[in-house]
């Protein structure tokens, strides 16, 4: 392997992909690459991905590295923090086998991820997964005790301009398969005209499909300026103590917003707001729905997500994976049945026709003559 190209460097993969171009080298510092990050890198088509950290630590079966390798993107793994600090934006890097050079100066080396390496790591996760699950359960119970009063009763939901009462609400997070699922429910959106809530980058996901978000909810770290300027209302998710790092960005754009201090994730408070304001139904796209989702998120206190779903569950529909239902091919026997059913009324109408009845009589006489009946 010999690759030479310009480097794009960022500690946050989601920030890097905003400026990463085709055939450039992506330099990241991302432990346990998740599916969303992997798919965003695949969309950029870099020539090489250099990761300072472990793309697969073996804690749990994260699927990101497998997606990258399957897409034909080479990943040079575990190059180390020191090498990551040495590489600067716009550096021209040359990678020969597993060694990294800049202006003929050797910077360091890494481990090339292969399907065999990934398979080995996945086998390792089988041993570690129960340990991680125990940690997750303990963490969940601990935070659930701390946060239950906030989530289930004492959390003050701010007043907003949007009228939720009796309306459907679509909460969009830019998570796994969000594009496919949004495409699958376009007919639903057109028919029911739900209130559209983009959770941070979920607002841009809505814009991609031609929808203007009614609300943007989040800490404003992954939503575009264009989306913030076009949406109708902005809710800045703040820490429970009131600190709101995202507020400064909104104010710099000259926009008004409402600050919502709360524990948990931004998707949690979006659902709580819709529930509290008497929405009739909450449809979620791209949100966290299983154990791998939570472990990939890597955030302590995901207990709030469980508590929120317990509270809003009677009104919540998760649209994750709905696109797979539409991709199922129609079975031949069902198609034959459909055609047969459609022909029945045609056949009945035909029998009532005098011309058809005359033909049938002639056919009956002909058969009697042939068989001597």
UniProtKB/TrEMBL annotation:
Keyword Flavoprotein: no
Protein name: Thiamin pyrophosphokinase
UniProt KW keywords: ATP-binding, Kinase, Membrane, Nucleotide-binding, Transferase, Transmembrane, Transmembrane helix
NCBIfam families: division_SteA (NF040608)
TM segment ranges: 334-353
Entries under InterPro entries matching the protein: Put_SteA-like, SteA-like_C, TPK_catalytic_sf
Xref: Pfam families: SteA-like_C
Domain SteA-like C-terminal: 320-368
GO BP annotation list: thiamine diphosphate biosynthetic process
UniProt organism field: Geosporobacter ferrireducens
UniProt GO molecular function: ATP binding; kinase activity; thiamine diphosphokinase activity
Family annotation (Gene3D superfamilies): Thiamin pyrophosphokinase, catalytic domain
């Amino acid at each position: 392997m010999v690759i030479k190209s310009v480097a794009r460097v960022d500690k946050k993969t989601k920030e890097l992909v905003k400026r990463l171009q085709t055939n450039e080298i992506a330099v990241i510092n991302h432990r346990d690459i998740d599916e969303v990050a992997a798919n965003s890198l695949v969309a950029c088509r870099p020539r090489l991905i250099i990761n300072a950290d472990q793309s697969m630590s073996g804690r749990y079966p994260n699927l990101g590295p497998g997606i990258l390798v399957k897409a034909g993107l080479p990943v040079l793994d575990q190059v180390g923090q020191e090498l990551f600090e040495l590489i600067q934006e716009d550096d021209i890097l040359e990678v020969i086998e597993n060694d990294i050079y800049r202006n003929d100066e050797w910077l360091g080396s890494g481990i090339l991820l292969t399907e065999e390496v990934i398979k080995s790591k996945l086998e390792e996760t089988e041993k570690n997964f129960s340990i991680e699950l125990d940690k997750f359960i303990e963490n969940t119970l601990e935070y659930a005790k701390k946060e239950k009063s906030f989530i289930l009763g004492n959390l003050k939901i701010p007043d907003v301009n949007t009228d939720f009462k009796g309306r459907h609400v679509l909460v969009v997070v830019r998570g796994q398969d969000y594009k496919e699922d949004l495409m699958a429910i376009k007919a639903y959106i057109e028919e029911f005209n739900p209130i559209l809530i983009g959770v941070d980058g979920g607002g841009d996901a809505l814009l991609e499909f031609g929808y203007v978000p009614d609300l943007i909810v989040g800490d404003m770290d992954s939503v575009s300026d264009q989306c913030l300027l076009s949406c109708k209302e902005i809710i800045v998710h703040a820490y429970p103590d009131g600190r709101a790092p995202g507020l400064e960005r909104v104010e710099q754009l000259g926009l008004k917003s409402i600050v919502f201090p709360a524990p948990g994730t931004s998707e949690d408070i979006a659902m709580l707001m819709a529930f509290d304001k008497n929405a009739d139904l909450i449809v979620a796209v791209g949100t966290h729905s299983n154990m791998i989702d939570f472990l990939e998120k890597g955030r302590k206190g995901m207990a709030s997500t469980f508590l929120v779903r317990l509270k809003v569950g009677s009104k919540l529909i998760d649209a994750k994976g709905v696109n797979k239902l539409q991709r199922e091919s129609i079975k031949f026997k069902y198609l034959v049945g459909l055609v047969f059913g459609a022909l029945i009324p045609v056949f009945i109408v035909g029998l009532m026709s005098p011309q058809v009845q005359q033909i049938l009589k002639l056919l009956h006489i002909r058969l009697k003559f042939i068989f001597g009946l």
